[in-house]
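Example 3.2
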Amino acid sequence: MAQLNNVIPLGESFSPTWKHLYECAMLELDKSKLPERIAAAHRAIVDRAEEIVDNQSDDEHYALNDALRALRLLAQVAAREKPTAQSPIQ
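Structure, written as tokens:
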């Protein structure tokens, strides 16, 4: 299993939108809602990464990268559990 290099900080300095959507995806128990939650979190993380591209917030960049890796793993696990499901993240 892949290992995340950094702990995702939950400090107040980070945008709450991507964190909330990420947490919702990671904690979703309803398999029918999981692909939608993963896709929404992925979009929010990528949008935030684009917003801060000029800002040298290394901590948040690490957190965003870790969150994207975790979402990819979650999408892979969800796809294995439901063979006909398409992974929302390529």
